[in-house]
Every structure is written in structure tokens, then in C-alpha cells.
Fold these 3 entries.
Entry 1:
Amino acid sequence: MDESRWHDIGSAEELSGKGLQQAVAGQMLGFFAELGCHLPPFPYIAHSRGWSAEDMERNVRYVMESRELRDGAADLVARAVSLAKTLLSGEAGEARTTRGGRKAHQLDVPAQI
């Protein structure tokens, strides 16, 4: 099998695993933002032990013992609290948000029949 074929297989494997999970998380973030939810900067916490680490017991232990993930979660909580304080204090100000995109506005041209 030539090298380009192996690359195609690797790309398909990536999309079916971790890449798909990241895509779903990104789509959910966009969905909730469109609904008007406010999210703190850098709202994700993630880790990976690699493709061969499919053992859930060791995976859970790794997450629970990881100082880096614990610090990341604490930082995310701090950013969320900071955002909540700003929003609740009214310092964010009121702003009218104009929806973007073709479906949000009438077209300037008459329909062509």
C-alpha cells in the first residue's frame, strides 16, 4: 500500500475518534453561543493519552491525578466567575446585536422568476 493511502486511512481514523468528539464540542459551543449563552474565554478542558489508551479505569485515574487538568479546571472556574461578575454588575453594557448572515436580512434584489 502506498504512503498516500496510509495517510487517507489515518485521516479517516482521526475523524472517527478524537476529531469527531472535538467537532461535536465545537458545534455545541457555537449552538449555545447562538442562543445567547455567554461563555468564558477558553471554555474547554481536554486531555488525551493517545489512540492506544482505551482502558477506562486507567483513564479515569489519570484524569483524577492530573495536576495540569486540575489547574486547568480551576482556571476555567475563575474565568467563568469573572465573566459572571461582569455580566451581573452591568458593566458589560447593553448592546443591540445585529444578526448576521443571509437568513437574517431581506435581500436587496427582487426575486427572479
Entry 2:
Amino acid sequence: MEMAITPFDQSQDFLPPASGTKKEAGLAPLLLTVLELVRQLMEAQVIRRMEQNYLSDLQLEQAAESLQKLESQVLHLCEVFDVDPAELNVNLGDFGTLLPHKGSYYPGEEGTQPSVLELLDRLLNTGVVVDG
């Protein structure tokens, strides 16, 4: 049996910009970007549930407190790894960006530029299940 060799693409297209980051940071910018994606997705879901009156005052308060703590931890880790929080994003070319630009997306409204966050939020809201 013959094995085919697939060339390794060392393109930097899918990595966050390295400007302003320490070389020692390694995967930290990418991991912090994914963490920020999850945080913003949770925030969008809380906003949706709040606007649909699915959350009690206590649940809303707990969710807000948790999201604030998570955001402060992300900012703290950005300081630790010398990563600019404004650079926590990944450009996916024609697919848009991983995170929306600040202020360009609100749950339930159509965003001005496509982002993975908007897609995931809409999928969760409609109840789409991916099998496999």
C-alpha cells in the first residue's frame, strides 16, 4: 500500500495577529480567542433568554455576575500573556471573522458583517442539532 504525502501549509491566514504579543505566548492568543468566543456566545444566549422573559431576576443576576467574572479573567490572562484584547479574533477570509466587530452584532438582529459567533448564536436559538 502506498501512502500519499499531503503538503503542510504553513500559511498564517487563520492565526490571530502576532503584533504586540510575546513569542513565549505560543497558543495563548488563539486559546484566549476561543474562550472569548464562548463568553460572547453565552452572553448572547443570556440576552436572548432575558428578552424572552425566560430568566428570573435571580438567574439573570447570577448569569450577569458569571459573565463579568469570566470577562475579567479573560482580560487578566491577556495581561499575563501580553496579548492585546482588541486582537482576540481570527479572520476566516470569505467566512468573516470568528468574533463580530465591537458593537456590530446584537442577538436577534442581523449583523453587518458575518461572524462565527453570530452563526453559532442563531443555530443555538433555532435548536439545530448536529449529529456525528
Entry 3:
Amino acid sequence: MASSRNNNDLLFDDGLVSSTEASDLSDRYIDYLRSNKGLGSRTLLAYRVDVLQCLEWCGVNDLSDLNSVSTSVLRQWMYWLNKNHARSSLARKVVAVRGFFAWATHVGLISANPAQILNTPKIVNELPTVLDEAQAEKLLDCAEDRSEDYAVDKSPATEHQENTPLKSQIKMRIKSKIKSQTETKQEYVIALRNAAILELLYATGMRVGELTSINVQDMDFENHTVKVTGKGNKQRVVPFGVPAAKACKKWLDCGRSAL
């Protein structure tokens, strides 16, 4: 019986696995990881992309179905990846694909796991480049200065006010910074937000991804602590100091509702 599939939609040349089926398999694998491994949404998304890329590469190289994928083939895939990917990315992709084939073996999609003996590329653990104390202070001071600059009273001067040199300087400073009242408010709000972000990052050492997942109720201003959800949905309580508390309160009180 002739196949009803459109050859343009096939993932593998022999037509045994379509791109839709590959996507469905990847989704099933990701659902399994989400339910059993507690991985974060970013990691799950990356793993899904990694698995699909591997399957697409196998399709380009004339493999008919999952059982046609051998350890040798996967090592060729790793060699191809090594040409244009950082070792950290390659290591993650190997972990994702090795896990996928282990899962596929477990649920009976394939008879043997070709990725079982794949070695994860070694990554040289290098210390990250960080700001020194002076640079950090300069960055924080800059954010604070910007929020204070935009907080200057922007009310227009009336005609009967004395045009003193000081008042002229103030008006010229305002005119040079402000194009419109709306634009000024937006810049002020953004400056407050940026100052709060930098102060909290500096005070806690949390990851940017962790910062973006913080809810208002996670902040405890009385005890100066914040509840942080890290990798694997593991939670921890991290202290922060007075400068971070002031910046965050100012953002919540004066800026957050305006965005």
C-alpha cells in the first residue's frame, strides 16, 4: 500500500518518521522530564531543540528510523557539532540526546540505546570575569544618579518668576534631558527599575534568570530576605542589605505600577 505522506514533510528519507512525529516524540520526552526531573522551563526548551536538531541531522544523513541510529552515527553528529558549537553547548546537547534515547529505549520505541556509551565533552572550569569593587560601585552609582536626575521637578516656570542664572541653568538642564512629560516619566520608571535590578543582583549574587522569576510576595522587607527559585525548582532564602531594600521599595512604590 502506497504511503499517503508528502515526501516534502518527511524527516527521514525512507519516510518512516515524519517531522511531525519527531516533534511529538520530543514533546513526550519533555513531558517526561517535566514530570520526573524537575527541570526549569529554559532547560526543557533547550533540550527539546537539541533533540530535534539531532533527529534532523540524522534525517539529512539518510537514516530511516530511530533504530537506524547507532553509536557511530551519534559520534559523527558530535564531530559535526564540535565544528561550530562551544564545548558547553555540545555537552548540553549530548546530555539531552543521551537522555532522549534512554527514554526511547525505556518506553519501547527502540530496542537498544545507541547513546548509552556517549561521553559528555569535558568543560574547562574557568572562573567568570567579574567587576572589581570600584567598577561595581561606579555601575550602582550611575543607576542611582539616573533615577535621581529624572526625579527633578519638571513643572514649567511661569513668566513672573525671576529669570536668575541658577533658574536658567535648571531650565536648560531640564530641556536638554526631557523631550516630553510622558517620555520623562517612562525614563524615570525605567531608571528606578534598573537601579533595583542592579542593587538586588549585587547584594544577592543570584542569576538573572532567578531574578526574573521573583514575585513581589517573595520579598521580605522586614527581614531583608528574598525567596529565590533556582535550578531544578530548588528554593533558597537569600539576604540583602539596606541599599537593595531602598532601591526595591522605591521601584515598587513609585515605578512598577507605571509600566
